[in-house]
Amino acid sequence: MGLKIGNLSKAFAAPVLRAVDIQIASGEIRGLVGENGAGKSTLLNILSGAIRADGGEILLDDEAYKPASVRAALDAGVALATQELSMIETLSAAENLALSRFPSRFGIVRRRHRDTVAKAAFASLGLSHLPPSLLASDMTLADQQLLEIARASMHGTKVLMLDEPTAALSREQAGLVHDLIRAKAAEGAAILYVSHRLEDLKQVCDTISVLRDGELILTKPSEALSIPAMIEAMAGTFAQRDRRAAARGEGPAALRVTDVTTAELPHPLSIEVKAGEVVGLAGLAGAGRSELMRAIMGLDARSGGRCERLVDGIATAVTTPADAVAAGIGYVPEDRKMSGIFAGQSVAFNLSLSALRGRRATPDSWIRERGAAIRDILKIRSSGLDQPIEQLSGGNQQKVILGRWLMLDTPVLLLDEPGRGVDVAAKADIFDEISRLAAAGAAVLMASSEMDELTSTCDRIAVMSGRRIAAIFEGPEWDEAAIMTAAFSAHVGGSAAGNEATRAGVYHD
Ligand SMILES: Nc1ncnc2c1ncn2[C@@H]1O[C@H](COP(=O)(O)OP(=O)(O)OP(=O)(O)O)[C@@H](O)[C@H]1O
Ligand SMILES: [Mg+2]
């Protein structure tokens, strides 16, 4: 019993899956890893009925399985929680959950049934706080992702597939997803779990398969596959990297935030970033890191304080997003899907967006030359600069949005989770590039939930907890335990601040 995939192939312009053989037994949790563009999502999309394979054979419980549509796959008990969220923003949580399954008789979905099912599904994923009537557009990114997984888990009775389900989630939320995966496997579902978080896979999965350039390289029990071996199989080679750039000199202040408050950030926050340094923002989900960046950019209205961009000691106030961009502040938000992929446009166009802004004429030759360099640096996998962006894999789309700000030597960069959704090798390149930019004089403020991303790249780390800056640490030696303690500081002791932070952790990403 289970899923047997034989000789599966798929090509778009070039081959994406090459004669892939995979067998997953009922009750087995299989991890699937590979670099950005290796073909993971394509494989899952074929199984989910979203796209058709070119060749090969799939057996589900020993019967031929060739879904003609997502609907047909769901009816067969095969479901996918996608990397790109598929919520409909104007529908409620319950409606989104019901969408794929409960056909409406005479066009009316039976509301009571729908809400009961919704409540149960929410509870299983720690989403009890989510009212079924809440609109998807009013949900946090993390809650939307959990809802996506809840929906898939309802339908994935035989095969449940998850495409980077935890990329936008906190540790605790990821733990809930892992509990759900284990429960579904115990009920007899075959699980296919794609993630770039290799440690998570090692913990949760029984077996792990590595896909490289559309080819299945190996499948091994998790205990028998070390993380370096996984990376080596993904990349074909493995070079130990020293990501820490040469010591960077301390420049003058480039960005100064003084006593800023917003509706989301009730306690005045101050922080300074110097030219030539990378300042990290650590903290748990809901600590206020993204909100601080939005406040600096003027995206959330400030109720107090000020932000200044300093050039040679001369300060310019930054109040609106237009001020920020004009002052040379680039911002890569956390939720890159929502923010600025221009579908239908080429990679070159999408890379050039920030460069075009504020310039009357940017020569095409410059865009192409610099774009090609950025494409190399970030290892953006596309057929060329002219490929439409929506044809790139999820991780490669993210690299383009990051690359947009690297096109210009933007003097101040605010990067919210720059490593999210990106494979290990590309991640190293991205953080190398961030280090290089700082060494060349850029001031970088970077939020990350991954300790090693922060400690490998930052000169200083500000730890946020309960929407305050709890502590600031100086590198290059890091006391990770102290950083973690600071991150939890608002959550211990049961003080009023602690309760507030805990609540924030539940409701906000
Ligand atoms: N509609 C399409 N047209 C052309 N090429 C496509 C299309 N969809 C995917 N591809 C290509 O197929 C390859 C595999 O993409 P896929 O999305 O499966 O990668 P992935 O392993 O999921 O990567 P990631 O880790 O970045 O999500 C990529 O090179 C991508 O550009
Ligand atoms: Mg993918």
Any ligands, ions or cofactors bound here, and which? adenosine-5'-triphosphate, magnesium ion
Q: What is the arithmetic mean of pLDDT?
A: 84
CATH superfamily of the largest domain: P-loop containing nucleotide triphosphate hydrolases
* CATH architecture term of the largest domain: 3-Layer(aba) Sandwich
Total domain modules: 3
Proportion of residues in helical segments: 25-40%
Largest sheet: 6 strands, mixed
Number of distinct helices: 17
Q: From the alpha-carbon coordinates, what is the Rg to the nearest angstrom?
A: 23 Å
Structural class: alpha/beta
Main β-sheet, spatial strand arrangement: 6-7-8-3-9-10
CATH class term of the largest domain: Alpha Beta
CATH topology of the largest domain: Rossmann fold
Got a strand count? 20
Q: What portion of the residues fall into strands of 2 or more residues?
A: 15-25%
